[in-house]
């Protein structure tokens, strides 16, 4: 797997954006990331391009709390297990953080952030 941050960011963003039109590529990228973690362990925050907050303006809604790789508890305010962890990035993870490997969960609706902002789920 190419672990260059710019490549991973571009691959994640384009794959997520096209997941409805190309679900096979979406699932293939998820599998590739998971296989990399199985083979070499979790990505460090530096390797994943981790930032403690989601960068504006394009990625405002792409935060760890809404990522398919986050260990989440239903109705948890933090969005994570008690230890604030991620399946693919090591260390303590903040729910408003972001990394190059962010991928939407299955139930995520593209461009749903404006309505979520008005509903208080920001």
Question: Any descriptors?
Answer:
globular; High-Potential Iron-Sulfur Protein, Chain A; 4 helices; single chain; mainly alpha; 0% strand; 122 residues
Polypeptide structure, described:
By secondary structure, the chain is mainly α. The chain has a single domain (5-119), classed as High-Potential Iron-Sulfur Protein, Chain A, CATH 4.10.490. It is 34% helix and 0% strand. It contains four helices and no strands. It has helices at residues 5-17, 23-40, 45-48, 113-119. The relative contact order is 0.19. Mean pLDDT is 80; it is low at 73-82.
User: Which ranges are low-confidence, i.e. pLDDT below 50, for 5 or more consecutive residues?
Assistant: 73-82
Output the CATH class name: Few Secondary Structures
CATH H level, superfamily name: High potential iron-sulphur protein
**Biggest beta sheet attributes:** none
Overall structural domain count: 1
Kindly state the number of beta strands.
Answer: 0
Q: State the shape.
A: globular
| Structural class by sheet pairing and helices | mainly alpha
Strand content: under 5%
Q: SSE order, as H and E?
A: HHHH
Please state the average pLDDT score: 80
Termini gap: 33 Å
Named CATH architecture:
Irregular
Helix content: 25-40%
Number of helices: 4
Determine Rg (CA atoms, Å).
14 Å
| CATH topology category name | High-Potential Iron-Sulfur Protein, Chain A
């Amino acid at each position: 797997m190419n672990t260059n941050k710019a490549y991973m960011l571009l691959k994640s963003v384009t794959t997520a954006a096209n997941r409805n039109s190309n679900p096979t590529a979406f699932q293939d990228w998820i599998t590739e990331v998971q296989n990399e973690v199985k083979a070499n362990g979790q990505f460090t925050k530096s390797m994943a391009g981790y930032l403690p907050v989601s960068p504006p303006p394009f990625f405002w809604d792409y935060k760890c709390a809404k990522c398919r790789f986050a260990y989440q508890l239903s109705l948890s305010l933090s969005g994570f297990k008690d230890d604030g962890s991620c399946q693919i990035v090591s260390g303590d993870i903040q729910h408003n953080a972001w990394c190059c490997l962010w991928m939407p969960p299955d139930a995520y609706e593209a461009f749903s952030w404006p309505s979520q902002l008005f509903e208080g789920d920001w």
